[in-house]
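4.2 Preliminary Data

To establish feasibility before requesting continued support, the project team ran the inverse folding procedure on a target of 80 residues. The structure was first converted into the token representation described in Section 3, and no sequence information of any kind was made available to the design step. The complete token record follows.
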């Protein structure tokens, strides 16, 4: 499952930093999470971009200690 997800990420149009974020996330995730991600990305290839932007925004919110941005990200996730 990990390899299949990595192939999808490798094929996506990501920057080196975005790719590294995904690799870190993949290596830290369990099989259940990887399976869910693979299913989502397979069903909707646009999810890679959405999830990448989401991860990046969360990291920035944490770095800047911006609780308002964090809450906005979480609310947006609930819509998906």
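Position-by-position output of the design step:
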């Amino acid at each position: 499952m990990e390899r299949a997800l990595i192939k999808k990420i490798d094929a996506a149009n990501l920057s080196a930093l975005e790719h590294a974020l995904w690799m870190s996330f993949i290596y830290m995730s369990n099989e259940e999470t990887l399976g869910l991600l693979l299913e989502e990305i397979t069903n909707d290839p646009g999810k890679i971009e959405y999830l990448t932007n989401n991860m990046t925004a969360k990291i920035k919110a944490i770095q800047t200690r911006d609780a308002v941005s964090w809450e906005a990200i979480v609310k947006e996730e609930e819509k998906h």
